[in-house]
Write a structure and sequence with these properties.
Number of helices: 6
Largest sheet: 2 strands, antiparallel
Shape: elongated
Number of strands: 2
Strand order of the largest sheet: 1-2
Length: 140
């Protein structure tokens, strides 16, 4: 049984929804961080805070991708991340996928736009990590 790749715009809408959910997670994480480190004028504060937020985002994505292959937004849009063989992601795949996706976003979304030209319509970070985005809505 094979699963089709969700359309590009469906994945973009899922990413927008993901962004909104992630904002809520980061808001709560920021609140906790500011309770612990209240001296915002310290030289170490800004880089430490930014690193902390990247770790929180990474933990959010990596945990969901390795525990069922779906974040909250992906569950709503019936999208899943699987390994190339159709199984679950390993920790290494999930970490690598997160870091490459993050790099892609910082490079003006080039890895996302890659899906428009990819033969299987996969994101560049999926191509490089041996993972696939699949749709659970219609089975082939």
């Amino acid at each position: 049984m094979t699963y089709p790749t969700p359309g590009f715009w469906r994945r973009i809408i899922c990413l927008i929804y993901e962004f909104l959910l992630l904002l809520a997670v980061l808001f709560i994480a920021s609140f906790i961080f500011h309770l612990i480190f209240s001296d915002t004028n310290a030289a170490y504060f800004k880089p430490l805070f930014q690193f902390y937020l990247l770790v929180i985002m990474g933990y959010y994505f990596i945990w969901f991708w390795t525990h069922g292959g779906q974040t909250l937004a992906m569950q709503t849009w019936k999208i899943r991340i699987v390994a190339a063989d159709g199984g679950g992601l390993t920790n290494r795949q999930a970490i690598t996928r997160y870091l490459l996706a993050l790099l892609s976003v910082f490079l003006f979304g080039i890895g996302i736009l890659w899906a428009l030209f990819d033969r299987d319509r996969q994101f560049l970070h999926d191509r490089l990590t041996g993972t696939r985005v699949i749709s659970l809505e219609h089975k082939k």
